[in-house]
User: What shape does this take?
Amino acid sequence: MNKISVSVADWHKDNAAIRRIRESVFIAEQAVPPELEWDAEDADAAHFLAFEGDYPIGTARLLPDGEIGRLSVLKDWRGLKVGEALLGAVLLEAEKRGLTQQKLSAQVQAAAFYERFGFHVVSDEFLEAGLPHVDMRRETV
Assistant: This one.
């Protein structure tokens, strides 16, 4: 396996790679309806791509208000710390932008992953796109 790297992506230039990953994970695997996956916020978000060599294997986005979302890793690369690398890059960018609070809606089975990065659950469980989620927050000083 090649080294995993993460970079800030350009929504217009890298759109095909971002869409391929999110369609594979959210629409194909998790049956999220396409109309819920794609929203107007993508145009204003900072996007991130994780690569193995030159091949895009994961993505995430950071909205201007500090909301993190759409963190996804292709199935064959899960368990290899790609998600950790992506989230680390997103949090670093949030810091650079002076965003002292980050928030996200996590699928319930992923809450422990986010807790390792300092997020804590701030809501009861709810359904989003038919999947159980919780809202989470992280404060930085």
Remarks:
- The radius of gyration is 14 Å.
- The mean pLDDT is 95.
